[in-house]
């Protein structure tokens, strides 16, 4: 469910920490206080959840959380970090301004997403597909580039035959809207 400023005020009270300050505290903990990967992973998962709600987009942009997602996606080899970074990117790329930031910061993002298409983790594949859809809608050139890569088409065609209906339907939609 999406939040409104009024509902956030009601939930936090007059003297509660506002959303921006809370996210800032989480980022500070991620960057400075978390010595172990388990804590960082939990914070990254929280950011991915916060990126679902458009009311948080501006805060996440101001705090450069998009950079954090991009860095984790490109620098971590642990599946869970990739999963949460990709989930956060997928959520935040529903907004065109965020897509623009993603492309400006990391023009090679498509390469990272394509690598994720070949993951053995269902959630990584689905989030990579959906993020690519958002980015294709934002920048037409991505569709042109993807159409030229036969291994991507073969991968998506394989997914379109999956027994998992969610993956099969998403892959069929991807083939129809972005690779035809």
Automatic annotation (TrEMBL):
<protein>
    <recommendedName>
        <fullName>Armadillo repeat-containing protein 7</fullName>
    </recommendedName>
</protein>
<dbReference type="InterPro" id="IPR011989">
    <property type="entry name" value="ARM-like"/>
</dbReference>
<dbReference type="InterPro" id="IPR016024">
    <property type="entry name" value="ARM-type_fold"/>
</dbReference>
<dbReference type="InterPro" id="IPR042462">
    <property type="entry name" value="ARMC7"/>
</dbReference>
